[in-house]
Design brief:
Length: about 200
């Protein structure tokens, strides 16, 4: 795919739960999914619990580093990180590390609503001056795209599932509350994920 240089202001505002469902419905080869803290993993949970899902609790900005670690340890398994704009802004250095490692099996998905939604909807810099796709490209992630709409998002997921990465997919989302709430049992989450990763993809 070639980047058509779409900017944040040119894309449709979508819904995180709807997009997460669309992603999960396309997973059929034991792909690992790392859900960032708060609403990202809440909607991942509501989209259908899979043993290959890891629901982060209280570790802001670490979805991408954790996903990178999984991708490095299991290069035969496709790995997806679901992150919010606020969390990514805390850990921008991770993008350069992902670009440096060039893990072919890794896809980063960012849900950007321009706010720290779960703590009171304080505005993030993406609502003002920051374009995350341009930052990703500047970090060396050449396969970086804004999803123009839901159909384009699905197209980008299909591309990531069938072509070497790393891939960076940014989406603009609304401020609707998540559909569910993750079962907050860290031991259960950790053990289930470890057992799933012990199984060949």
């Amino acid at each position: 795919m070639t980047n058509t240089f779409t900017t944040r202001d040119q894309v449709q505002i979508m819904n995180r739960f709807d997009l997460t469902k669309r992603l999960v419905q396309k997973l059929n080869a034991n792909e690992a999914v790392i859900g960032g803290i708060g609403n990202n993993n809440f909607d991942l949970w509501a989209s259908g619990q899979r043993p290959e899902n890891f629901y982060m609790l209280g570790s802001m900005g670490l979805a991408i580093p954790i996903a990178l670690g999984v991708a490095l340890s299991q290069p035969q398994r496709r790995v997806f990180a679901l992150e919010g704009d606020g969390s990514l802004l805390m850990q921008l250095g991770a993008l350069g590390t992902v670009a440096k490692t060039q893990m072919k099996n890794l896809t980063l998905i960012v849900f950007d609503n321009g706010m720290y939604q779960i703590t009171g909807k304080q505005t993030t810099l993406t609502n003002q001056t920051v374009d995350l796709v341009k930052i990703a490209e500047g970090a060396g992630l050449t396969n970086s795209y804004w999803a123009r709409d839901a159909a384009h998002f699905e197209e980008l997921i299909e591309h990531a599932l069938n072509n070497d990465g790393p891939h960076f997919i940014a989406t603009r989302i609304d401020d609707k509350s998540p559909v569910g709430t993750t079962d907050r049992d860290p031991v259960k989450i950790r053990l289930g994920f470890m057992q799933a990763l012990a199984t060949k993809s």
